[in-house]
Design goal:
DUF945; 6 helices; 411 residues; alpha+beta; 3 domains; 26-stranded antiparallel β-sheet; DUF945 family protein
Length: 411
């Protein structure tokens, strides 16, 4: 009899514990979603908004709108329905991309097909999210232009401060009259790690295109694997960008036109000035989303010039290109520097003026060495045929080759 008396209070306690855990799970999901969206917007390039929000301890729903900070060229809307559980939350919804100032939707307005759906699972205890989007094939035709897209898949995951994105697209073809651009499978791997408010961040990206072909009357180019790797890092002192482009064999008329690798690094971009410029840009766009580019540049001129105070440096870490068809080889390295003295004499908003561009060019100094320069290049530049290395110097914006002024390249 005593055991029977205990059943009801135990059941009530368990129900209360479950209800409390369910309520906490819904609160944690909402908190993590809000933090993730705030961190995404803190980076500076995007505007993120929420609408139609309905919160509940069993389920939540709403819509997310992501658009560029500048302009109205596109918008990505993600509807979501979250079903909360004690240990995990299942999320699903539709992906609704649109383009142009009138937000013309790709699926529905341009394509007579349903938008793709996305699915994810949020782990309450670990605070991790894993999800995916399946892209269905489609065909768009407009006059002589046609895009044949054969589908793909995107997956994403991570937790606050560390997110990953992987994309795999099937072959696609773009036709414009008699010209055709065709791509083999494309893959993208991206990782974004950051501190609160994106004060510091590091982003790694790797893009691979298995094959790429261009064809038009009288010209046909076909490339093997192309890959682009980049690393962007913002720390206490600077913004640094490392990038590397690797070209497989580019064929023309069944001969190798080009292959090789280029690696570059941009550094000494003042970190505090970058943050100030992004903050100022947000303030200006909050007043009016559509601004004349020159007017916007004028308003941001102090912040933009501040980015240059540490003498930005562009390093050409390595160039290793070869063209058996043309009989040319380019192997070299170098660096280019910007002189930051008397920045008040410069105006980014007047760069469309030839005299202003001359002032900016006058701030450039650097050098580049082309090892084992082909004889035909030495002959073209009017140098002795015995020239082995090409020393290219940039002095106050003027180019000298092996101590001589650069001769006119087109005669």
């Amino acid at each position: 009899m005593r055991k029977e008396r205990l059943i009801v209070p135990v059941a009530v306690v368990l129900a209360l514990v479950w209800a409390l855990a369910q309520y906490l799970a819904s609160l944690l999901f909402e908190r993590e979603l809000a933090r993730a969206l705030a961190d995404l917007e803190a980076r500076g390039e995007l505007v993120v908004e929420r609408s139609g929000i309905e919160r509940g301890w069993l389920s939540s729903s709403g819509s997310l709108q992501v658009s560029p900070l500048l302009g109205d060229g596109w918008q990505l809307e993600l509807s979501y329905l979250a079903r909360h559980g004690v240990f995990s939350t299942r999320v699903e919804g539709e992906v609704l991309p649109s383009a142009g100032p009138h937000h013309r939707r790709l699926f529905g307005d341009c394509l007579p097909s349903s938008p793709p759906r996305w699915h994810a699972r949020y782990q309450t205890l670990g605070g991790t999210l894993e999800g995916s989007v399946q892209l269905a094939p489609f065909l768009i035709s407009q006059g002589e232009r046609e895009l044949d897209f054969r589908g793909g898949q995107l997956s994403f995951g991570g937790q606050q401060g560390d997110w990953r994105l992987r994309a795999r697209l099937q072959p696609w073809r773009l036709t414009d009259g008699v010209a055709t651009l065709e791509s083999g499978p494309v893959s993208l791997e991206s990782r974004y790690a950051y501190t609160s408010g994106a004060h510091h961040f590091t982003q790694h990206d790797l893009l691979r295109i298995d094959t790429l072909a261009w064809e038009q009357p009288g010209l046909a180019l076909e490339s093997g694997e192309l890959s682009y790797r980049s690393r962007m890092q913002l720390d206490d002192s600077e913004l640094r960008i490392d990038s590397e482009l690797t070209l497989g064999e580019v064929l023309a008329a069944e001969q190798v036109l080009l292959s090789g690798r280029i690696a570059m690094e941009l550094s000494r971009i003042n970190a505090d000035a970058v943050r100030e410029a992004l903050a100022a840009l947000r303030r200006e766009t909050a007043k009016a989303r559509t601004l004349d580019p020159r007017e916007l540049t004028e308003r941001l001129e102090p912040e933009l010039l501040g980015i240059l105070v540490d003498s930005p440096r562009l390093d050409v870490v390595e160039v290793d290109l070869e063209s058996p068809m043309l009989g040319l080889t380019v192997r070299g390295d170098g660096a280019l520097f910007f002189d930051p003295r008397r920045l008040e004499e410069l105006s980014p908003s007047r760069l469309d003026d030839e005299a202003e561009r001359a002032l900016w060019l006058n701030r450039l100094d650097g050098d580049f060495i082309w090892h084992e320069v082909p004889t035909v290049v030495a002959l073209w530049l009017g140098l002795p045929l015995s020239t082995r290395d090409l020393e290219i110097d940039v002095i106050r914006g003027r180019v000298r080759v092996n101590g001589r002024p650069l001769p006119p390249l087109w005669r």
